[in-house]
Amino acid sequence: MLLFLLFFGFQLIVINETKSGLPCKIFKYHNADCVGRMIVDFPDNLPTNIQDIDLSGNRVRILDKPVPYTKLEKLTLRENGLESISVVFFGKVTSLKQLDLSYNKLKDLNLSSLTNLIHLDLAASGVKDELLKTRMFQYLVRLQSLILRQNKLFRIPDSAFKGLENSLEHLDLSYNNFDYIPSEISKLKYLSKLVLNHNSFGIRYEFILPTCFSELSNLKYLYLSSCGIKFMSNGAFSPITRNNLTVLDLSQNNFSYLNDSLRLMHIDVFNLSSSNIKTLSELDGVKIRHLSLNSCSYLFKNGSVLRETLQSVCRCELQRLDLSWNGIHTIEDGALFCLSALTSIHLDNNILGNESIQKDEFQKMRNLQTLSLNNNEFTSFDLPVLEHTKSTLTQLDLYDNQILGSKIKTGKISFPNLIALKITIPKVDITKLILSIDNKMPHLKTLHIKQHTNHHRKCKGKGHTPYSTETPPWIRHASAFNHLKELAIIGYQFKTQYDFETLLSFLSPNITKLRLENCNIESTWLQCLNMERLKYLSLTENTIDSLPIDIFWKTDKLSYLDLSSNCFTKIDYSILSNLKHINTIDLSDNKIDNNINVDLLSSFYNLTYFDLSGNKFHCNCDLYEFKNWLKIDSKVYFPEFQKYECSSTTPESVYLLEYDLSRFSCYNKTMVICICLTTGTIVLVLFVSIVCYRRRYSVRFAWYWVKIKLRPNSHHYQPVPTSSDTTDFDVYVASNSNDFQWVKWTLIPNLENSSYAIRLCIKDRNFPVGGNVMEDIIEFIHASRKTLLILTPDFVLNEWNYFELQRAMIRDLEEKQDMIIPVLLKPIKDKDLPRLLREIQLRKGFIEWTEHPLGKELFWNDLVKAIQEDSTLSRYKDNEINKWRKRTSMTYSHVI
């Protein structure tokens, strides 16, 4: 037995070792992540109910066998060098809805069986004009999105889109070799999004949309970026003037002038960025909500925004205007007066200064909410131009400017409705900035403070910054932070622990996002970090080497934790155990060697992202479970886990996944024996459980009998002599409670209340009230000359009826007489008939009840004859008794 257990345990270990080598990660039994596993054949060992398979970045060249997963809905075969797909491959996956074959080398493709496909990606897959001639899409009648980006297409053959006329909504033909817009597109009458970026429509010819595009009444998104458009013909956009476009993208082209056909259009987002446009006169009267003029240096001569430049868009009802990256250093007085409907203006990455914008420039913008002045040359907050925006402005971005401490004055930052403020303060103490923030900004929710610094992270060992109790001068103004929900302090070097703790103590208890990055924070400073509603915490680029044990006791709602670029050598994962909602943990670029608790990480149900890149692992048996966890069923994504390196003295890098760690090399013999014994015990328990379940009635009745025997003053029954003179009843009636009405109104009147005067024992009538049912059954069967079985489907399913059958059989075997009379009241299926009853049926048959008058008379004659017949006339033979004892699951000796 011991040898068997050892062998079985060994087999389990080997099986587990084989399973750990599976190439794919399984998420919740429905999604398979097989990315970058060097797979050469389509896997056939995944769960049969798999719905999503990602095989990106492998080496599957040919698919010539049927897909065995009939419930598959999404299949990604990106970057495999795939050349051929057989017709039979998609034969069984009619449920497929999303298919990605991008970045392959397809020579032929048959998709006729994918009638439920919704999204098809064939980007950079080698699709040529000849392949489109095969009408490969004609059976894809539900396809809504088709990506043909970055192929070698010069033209679209006739009827290439046959079958897609009533379904296709999104078509991407960007990065191809078209020199004119294919007219075949016009047949897609439900098309709403058309992407034609990076083609050559305007190099050889003047740009114009085909007149047949007038049939595209649902077109809302049109992308024509980087198409080499130099000139536009008259009426270039006339076919779609009735369309209310959501997006029109003409960025990165070479045209200098637009076309008058735009004047009748309504465009929500119009992108003219990085073009050579010199005038906006053609936009006069065009309804535009968002106009992007990034990098349009020809439009702003000598870096100035003139009145005449934007005069043409005054009637466009603009709400958002983007003038970033134009080298603007001056805005002429009144240049923005007519844009009174603006709610957002971006002037990022220019060279604007304090005097570049006149005081009244934003005066008429009574709805201005967002002002972005990122990366300019402003040196102070007290800008005259901001005076007229204080009551409306909700977002102000002054990142990467040159604001000087000498220009910061107390109380100058006062915007009563400001929600978000982003500021960069080079070489300025943060206390001066906080003194400048008015404490009467009740709506301030987001504050980002950035300071350029030359500080480099340096792990300090056991020493730490001395603790100071000097009260910072900004403590009385910290009430400005009472309503904050998001705070980011980047690059500021806290001088003392008390300075850091005081800042945290005056933050709002409702803060949800906190970024303290590159702030020289040490491990001992984190004791007071206990904000109850914190969801996002970033402490990257500090000098933290450990975490206080109670740091997360109150922050149980935390979902994002960034501890990258610190000094950790190990992590006490028990500290993280309270983070039940965590989904992202970043521990990259630390010094962690092998301290990874797989069991605890597996208990984080919501964890989906865990970054350990940039650490040098000490590859030994401590990492065995972690290595397997990287390869097998795990819902967690590890960025670049294939590049996790082992620390080594050799110049060549050794990757963790390639390091040879086996189970037998990591566990000693004692552990193997314990596993084998445990496995054997489990198998034995399972075997006993199965036997007990199959014999559950016998086990249960034996248990009842033991309890009866152990009860004080219990009865010890002796076999009753066969003489009818010593019995109290002629017949014991064994029936189900659901058949009592038949017994009461049919059986009793015809046997007991008739001329036959047969004495019947009826449970519901003769059993004593409050007695033990099992004792009563045994007693009254022995007190009756014969036993009458009223057989119905309910009878064979009831455990007490089955007990009555067994007791009657035991009495037959003890007295070697045939005392059982089976009566079939209702038909019973053969599969439901117990083995004991089947043996009785084969031996002497059943007396069957019928509703036919003549049949009833025969029934009562046969039944009375069987009751009155002397049992000694049909004694069992010795060989039949032995046969019955083998068939009976519980004999008299088993029970007594």
What does this structure look like?
The protein starts with a helix and ends with a helix. It is α/β, with parallel strands linked by helices and 896 residues long. Helix 6 links the parallel strand 24 and strand 25. Helix content is 22%, strand content 15%. The strands form five sheets. It has a 25-stranded mixed β-sheet, with no helix packed on it. Strands 34-33-35-36-37 form a five-stranded parallel β-sheet, with helices on both faces.
Class inferred from helices and paired strands: alpha/beta
Summed up, the helix count is 20
- What's the mean pLDDT score? 81
Number of strands: 37
The biggest sheet, with number of strands, parallel, antiparallel or mixed sense and barrel status, is: 25 strands, mixed
Radius of gyration: 43 Å
**Euclidean distance between termini CA atoms:** 32 Å
Q: Helical content, roughly?
A: 10-25%
Strand content: 5-15%
Please describe the structure with a list of short key phrases separated by commas or semicolons.
20 helices, alpha/beta, disordered N terminus, single chain, 896 residues, elongated
Compact description:
The protein contains 20 helices and 37 strands.
